[in-house]
Design brief:
alpha/beta, Glycerol-3-phosphate (1)-acyltransferase, two-stranded antiparallel ribbon, 7 helices, 9 strands
Length: 222
């Protein structure tokens, strides 16, 4: 009951300040195991995506500092967020993520590891490659954009358009025993190319020139 109530209150609040086009979330399966890989623009990303996926069983990897604030800590406790220490290879978080996937949840992960605020993609961290190889679950790109204009629009009491797009499911072609950092970074970049391909060109950032390989490291499931 608490999760339903909190989720619906937050969902309603996001619609007061955003014009959300979330129609493509219908492409997301009703349950996992699936890793939803996403870009990370600002504080609005997770509340919008998680509330619009409800009642699908979802969780997400969330920076541990989120629990330093009582309100955001409360929200991500309700949404069953998994704290992750971004300063280390947090295998405790990875273990909990694997358990969530084994329980057929949808796990949301932002490979960039931090907010960009502008919406332009930055280089992914290789952690997403280790996680994908460890869990051997399908990945699904779920991107969003537009909310980077929120700070300016709210000053004018204007709602901000936010669009969500969903791509093709795929798996990574890398063994969980792989330790080569360059290979794992290449896999992370291939994953980010799937995210970039769904975004308008101005948001593609370091992945705009399309020089990172995809076919070598990914296999599509559709």
């Amino acid at each position: 009951m608490k999760k339903w109530l909190v989720t619906n209150i937050v969902k309603h609040m996001t619609h007061l300040i955003l014009k959300i086009d979330a129609k493509e979330l219908e492409k997301v399966p009703a349950q996992g195991p699936i890793i939803a890989v996403t870009n990370h623009i600002n504080f609005l990303d997770a509340p919008v995506v998680l509330t619009h996926l409800y009642p699908c069983p979802t969780t997400s990897l969330v920076k541990k500092e989120t629990w330093d604030n009582w309100f955001t800590g409360f929200l991500f406790n309700v949404w069953e967020g998994i704290p992750i220490d971004r300063s280390i290879a947090d295998f405790t978080a990875f273990r909990k993520a694997k358990e969530a996937l084994e329980a057929k949840k949808i796990l949301a992960v932002a490979p960039e590891g931090t907010r960009t605020e502008t919406g332009e993609l930055i280089r992914a961290k290789p952690g997403i490659s280790y996680l994908a190889a460890l869990c051997d679950s399908p990945l699904l790109p779920v991107v969003h954009y537009g909310q980077e204009a929120f700070s300016e629009n709210i000053k004018r009491l204007k709602r901000t358009p936010m669009k969500i797009k969903v791509g093709r499911p795929f798996k990574v072609l890398v063994d969980k025993r792989e330790k080569d950092k360059e290979i794992m970074q290449a896999v992370a970049d291939a994953i980010m190319m799937e995210i970039a391909s769904l975004l308008p060109e101005k948001y593609r950032g370091v992945y705009a020139d399309g020089t990172f390989e995809r076919e070598k490291y990914l296999t599509y499931l559709d």
